[in-house]
């Protein structure tokens, strides 16, 4: 009785707003889902389609790759800048695909827009991998770009393409692109078979390249990719991640043997609670644990065990917890853009909970018994925090609710659009917009910012990019979470 009471108490306390009274608002997950997907239209690079709904954005970077005779137009800007970093872009695409695979049937009319968001990424990755044994991993000079405050429609900084090759490898980026293509091939298998086949064939080719010519793009392209998106965890996790998605897409024993033969890389890492654009360990363990939990004759106890350790590393009541929480209950990890951890780890917990519930399994963290409903409740608590159930009663999603961030660290949102200011704005011409205390003239609907600090404080300031900058990899896993809670009240 005492243990049950404690569990209920923890669930309760992590889903309220502290103050003079308890506030437990009901959130419109359907509205939040629509907006979280719409955000990706605001991050599009290239020639925008006639179906573009975020109409203040216009065509941009239409000549990417021209200087080397390769079409590299398209893809996404990762955050508030105008560079195309393929490492986080590929991870975002993988997570959008995984969100659809897990929760697509709950999306309703938003499913079409989610598929469009995935295809916008995969169309670009097909271009970036069109030359055998060459993978383009970035377009744009990050130093020149970060020195300017320009709309993407105006940018005149160098659009230099960067690639990895046999002699200058980049296994982490290539393997992540392979994962994105493989995961997306499963998504399109039911509605566009030829496209699905194309994605899978390219995924296999790119993974083989990543595995055969091993090395980190930190070594080959360090001066241009660091410190922006350095690979800090090594490339072994991306190779495992790519193989895991290829196994799911093909059910081939080739990839299963690859995974088993490389389990030692998982065992030696100890990174049970790491998951994001850089580190894939927790995601690999959750993804592969499905094989053991849901049958099929697989024996993957290490992955299942590691997934349990991931849960015990995250939950606040666990005696082996390795993460911090704000007073208001927000999962918090050091570094920038904390919401990327909140959404990614919460997505994994939701997915793992659903796998566990199919076989009526629980997790033991020391003397604490963790049930699938507890994991789902925890994930919902984090989502609710993002949407406004927090000490500031503030939504961290732009356009959701009445109180949300108005001054994003985002060039496009902060500068008047071409509709209102048709003259070219040069590199420093946007600086007054950056320094201004005025709200953004353009609403980047659905964008989730980096979020508050560990004390639940948020400064709505463009200059404080750690808190005010949105990213694609914050939103991508959130799509799957919102789709589930839209149709599963907890």
UniProtKB/TrEMBL annotation:
One record GO biological process: cellulose catabolic process
Keyword Hydrolase assigned: yes
UniProt-listed Enzyme Commission number(s): 3.2.1.4
Catalysed conversion reaction: Endohydrolysis of (1->4)-beta-D-glucosidic linkages in cellulose, lichenin and cereal beta-D-glucans
Molecular functions (GO terms): cellulase activity
Alphabetized InterPro entries for the sequence: 6-hairpin_glycosidase_sf, 6hp_glycosidase-like_sf, Glyco_hydro_9, Glyco_hydro_9_Asp/Glu_AS, Glyco_hydro_9_His_AS
Active-site positions on this chain: 409, 460, 469
Leader peptide range in chain numbering: 1-19
UniProt KW Hydrolase keyword: yes
Domain Glycoside hydrolase family: 29-482
UniProt keyword list: Carbohydrate metabolism, Cellulose degradation, Glycosidase, Hydrolase, Polysaccharide degradation, Signal
Sequence similarity: Belongs to the glycosyl hydrolase 9 (cellulase E) family.
Record PANTHER family: ENDO-1,4-BETA-GLUCANASE
Name this polypeptide is given: Endoglucanase
Organism this protein belongs to: Aquilegia coerulea (Rocky mountain columbine)
Taxonomic path: Eukaryota, Viridiplantae, Streptophyta, Embryophyta, Tracheophyta
């Amino acid at each position: 009785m005492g243990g049950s009471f404690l569990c209920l108490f923890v669930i309760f306390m992590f889903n309220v707003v502290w103050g003079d009274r308890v506030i437990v608002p009901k959130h419109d997950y359907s509205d939040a889902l629509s907006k979280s997907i719409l955000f990706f239209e605001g991050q599009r690079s290239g020639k925008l389609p006639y179906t573009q709904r975020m109409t203040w954005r216009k065509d941009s970077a239409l000549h990417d790759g021209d200087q080397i005779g390769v079409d590299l137009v398209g893809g996404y800007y990762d955050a508030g800048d105008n560079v195309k970093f393929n490492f986080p872009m590929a991870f975002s695409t993988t997570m959008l695909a995984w969100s659809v695979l897990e929760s697509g049937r709950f999306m309703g009319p938003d499913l079409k827009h989610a598929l469009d968001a995935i295809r916008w990424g995969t169309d670009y990755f097909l271009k970036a991998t069109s030359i055998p044994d060459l993978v383009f991993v970035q377009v744009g000079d990050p130093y020149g770009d970060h020195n300017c405050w320009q709309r993407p429609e105006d940018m005149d900084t160098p659009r230099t393409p960067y690639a990895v090759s046999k002699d200058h490898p980049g296994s982490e980026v290539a393997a992540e692109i392979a994962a994105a293509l493989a995961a997306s091939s499963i998504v399109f298998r039911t509605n566009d078979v030829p496209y699905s086949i194309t994605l899978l064939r390219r995924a296999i080719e790119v993974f083989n390249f990543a595995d055969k010519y091993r090395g980190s793009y930190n070594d080959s392209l360090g001066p241009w990719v660091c410190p922006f998106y350095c690979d800090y965890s090594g490339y072994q996790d991306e190779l495992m991640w790519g193989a895991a998605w290829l196994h799911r897409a093909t059910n081939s024993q080739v990839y299963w043997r690859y995974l088993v033969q490389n389990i030692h890389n998982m065992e030696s890492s100890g990174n049970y609670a790491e998951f994001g654009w850089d580190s894939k360990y927790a995601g690999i363990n959750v993804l592969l644990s499905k094989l053991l939990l849901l049958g099929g004759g697989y024996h993957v106890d290490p992955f299942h065990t590691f997934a349990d350790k991931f849960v015990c590393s995250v939950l606040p009541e666990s005696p082996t917890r390795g993460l911090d929480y704000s007073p208001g209950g927000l999962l918090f990890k050091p570094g920038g853009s904390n919401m990327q951890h909140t959404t990614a780890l919460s997505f994994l917990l939701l997915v793992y909970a659903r796998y566990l519930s199919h076989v009526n399994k629980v997790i033991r963290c020391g003397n604490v018994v963790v049930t699938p409903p507890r994991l789902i409740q925890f994930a919902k608590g984090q989502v609710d925090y993002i949407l406004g159930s927090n000490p500031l009663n503030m939504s961290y999603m732009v356009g959701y609710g009445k109180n949300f961030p108005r001054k994003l660290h985002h060039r496009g949102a902060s500068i008047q659009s071409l509709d209102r200011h048709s003259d070219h704005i040069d590199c420093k011409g946007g600086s007054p917009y950056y320094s201004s205390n005025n709200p953004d003239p353009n609403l980047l609907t659905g964008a989730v910012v980096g979020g508050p600090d560990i004390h639940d404080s948020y400064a709505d300031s463009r200059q404080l990019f750690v808190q005010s900058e949105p990213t694609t990899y914050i939103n991508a896993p959130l799509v799957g979470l919102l789709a589930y809670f839209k149709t599963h009240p907890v």
